[in-house]
Specification:
Elements: H1 2-6, H2 8-27, H3 32-49, H4 56-79, H5 85-95, H6 103-127, H7 146-159
Helix pairs in contact: 2-3, 2-7, 3-4, 3-5, 4-5, 5-7, 6-7
Length: about 160
Amino acid sequence: MIQVIQQIPLAVLALLGAVGMIFDVRWRRLPNWLSLLTMVSGLAVCVLTAAPDTNMLSTIASHVAHGLVALVAGMVLFRLGAVGGGDAKFYAALAMWLPLSRAALFLGVTAGAGLVSLALWFLARRIAGRRVAGRHGDAQGKFPFGVAIALGALGAFAIG
């Protein structure tokens, strides 16, 4: 029974990630309500699963710091046109699930998932005879990076 209870945070994270993937693949949007729900859930899991002998304030601060660093970096990338605003907010919300010490792990797993996802997506589009859109093209021709972000969060959370 305890093992099942310990898997609940991973299941919640997987559900939130799946919702994000569906929204991004189907509509190329990651809604603000999803990012907010993901952020609040991550902080709740942080509080509920913290070891009794840890300093709760520093644990929460580490998760919030990770989210804030991710949000600032994401907004810079958004401003440069490298990622969408929804991607930046979704990544930052998922970062709240992990302490700052796992930032490099989250980024690395997300980058790896992004490379694999991009290769598969590009191949699928080429086989289907569909074009890949540039910045101002058809929204469905743009890569849904929310998939890689969700997979990166799941991987980083499961590894830790």
